[in-house]
Amino acid sequence: xxxxxxxxxEILPLFNDPEKYTKIEEYLCMNSNLPGPRGNxxxxxxxAGYFKTAFVRKELIDCLFQWANIPEETAPVNDxxxxxxxxxxxxxxxxxxxxxxNTKLRIMEQLKKAMNDTRWRVREGVAMGFQYIAEMxxxxxxxxxxxxxxxxxxxxxxxxxxALAHPPILKNKDIVxxxxxxxxxxxxxxxxxxxxxxxxxxxxVLSKGLQYCISVFTAELPEEGFQLLKNYASYKDKDISKIxxxxxxxxxxTKKYPQMVKEVSEVIYE
Length: 270
Prior knowledge:
Blueprint: H1 8-11, H2 21-30, H3 41-49, H4 58-68, H5 83-95, H6 101-115, H7 120-136, H8 139-149, H9 154-164, H10 173-191, H11 201-220, H12 222-233, H13 238-248, H14 251-254, H15 258-265
Helix pairs in contact: 3-5, 4-5, 5-7, 6-7, 7-9, 9-10, 9-11, 10-11, 10-12, 11-12, 11-13, 12-13, 12-15
């Protein structure tokens, strides 16, 4: 389905009139590309772009929080209304850098809550929201991820990884190292986790994230990344082996670092 992004020109004039916010909802839902396999990401990005400023009406920010909290019962997976919490979460992430401290706290609390949403599209929105924040200033992301990690569940760990696997922020090697350390911590936690927890859908979501994210980090710091992969390659753990194999199969590694891929592959537990 074609992504209609020209509609943003009709939406923008409505931002200054709280009585017309329902019209914004209608425009977004009608141009969401939902139901369908792929929502209108370009429109969502343009919508979020409006909030990259300090000059946004309080009523509009409150409206975003209302949309972000629309439950699955009202906006189920692949329903047009699901596009509203998705767009709201992106917009809140985009606005974070420009707003005052109390609103920043609310935004972080909202993003953390949405990490556990049952809808995959909303969870993807969380990763993108954090990426907007990280592009402007990484320190809040570092601080919150570090603070939250100890008590984080599988979905939250997956959200951390997905947010960090964003090439524009990985030009900074300190961020890559932070991402590799986080990956290391998550792999350690998996090894010590019980078998029952690994049978859950939440673990499956985390595992799929790990199966590509580590390769994204490794491509930016190959020596350190491949050492991490090698450290876990020989563990007698099928879930860990699956994660390591999947990362080694990614073109971003096989094309540029075939010898390093070969060396790690040779010690993987079968």
